[in-house]
Amino acid sequence: MSSRVLLNLVHPVLEKSWANQAMLEAVKDLDFVKVNDLYEEYPDFFIDVRREQRLLLEHSLIIFQHPFYWYSSPSLMKEWQDQVLAEGFAYGEGGYQLADRYWLNAVTAGASEDSYASHGFNKFSTEELLRPFEQTANFCGMTFVKPFIMYQSETIGHSAVEKEAQRYRQYIESLVHRLDIAKAASGGAEPVEEA
Ligand SMILES: Cc1cc2nc3c(=O)[nH]c(=O)nc-3n(C[C@H](O)[C@H](O)[C@H](O)COP(=O)(O)O)c2cc1C
């Protein structure tokens, strides 16, 4: 099976990561997953827009795997969105080339699930806090699928992290199965230059 799932990994210090490393280890051998480590590719933030757009067109499910940083992603993901999801490619005239793709945020959060509620110290649910990503996917005509969240990523302990990483693997496998994307054809449109 060729890779139909693009895993855009967004972690600035992967060598010091525990949770995201475990998640990556749990899924990287899946033959339909292509890993694209954005901080490794673009340590200076100069993104190869055509390469990134081509990768998007070649895959059906796009995963953004990242730690929760200030209720969002590490900053390279914002730069990636600003550059890659360009007018004429992701939206606007000649755009919407990602219209049949699926978007998944796979997030590790230091805080507990309980804290992400109106009564908790984080006040809002992760569902609410991830809305800018959801609406970005909507705007591009993509389908935003239910995020994967590993809570208490720094404190749950080794075996719980491993368990969560396996839950992540199963979630991706079930999505591929449910969305029937393993055999979905990739788009034929050409990537365009940055707008
Ligand atoms: C700059 C920064 C911002 C963070 N912001 C949040 C946050 O908003 N919410 C949260 O639950 N954890 C936050 N954390 C904790 C990280 O989410 C946590 O360290 C990460 O999920 C651990 O994953 P790793 O082992 O792969 O690095 C933050 C950590 C850093 C360094």
3D structure, described in words:
The chain has a single domain, classed as Flavodoxin domain (Rossmann fold, 3-Layer(aba) Sandwich). It is built from 7 helices and 6 strands, in the order E-H-E-H-H-E-H-E-H-H-E-E-H. The protein has helices at residues 19-27, 38-41, 49-58, 75-84, 126-129, 131-139, 158-179, and strands spanning 5-9, 33-37, 61-67, 102-108, 143-144, 148-150. Helix 4 links the parallel strand 3 and strand 4 (102-108). The protein is globular and about 45 Å long. The model is unreliable at 185-195 (pLDDT under 50). The protein binds flavin mononucleotide (FMN).
Bound small molecules, deduplicated: flavin mononucleotide
CATH fold node name: Rossmann fold
Number of strands: 6
Average residue pLDDT = 92
Q: Would you tell me the structural class of the helices and strands?
A: alpha/beta
Uncertain ranges: 185-195
Q: Please give the oligomerization state of what you see.
A: single chain
Q: What count of structural domains?
A: 1
Using the coordinates above, name the CATH class.
Alpha Beta
CATH architecture name: 3-Layer(aba) Sandwich
State the helix count. Answer: 7
- Summarize the biggest pleated sheet: 6 strands, parallel
Q: Helix and strand layout, with pairings?
A:
Elements: E1 5-9, H1 19-27, E2 33-37, H2 38-41, H3 49-58, E3 61-67, H4 75-84, E4 102-108, H5 126-129, H6 131-139, E5 143-144, E6 148-150, H7 158-179
Parallel strand pairs: 1-2, 1-3, 3-4, 4-5, 4-6
Helix pairs in contact: 1-7
Bound molecules: flavin mononucleotide (FMN).
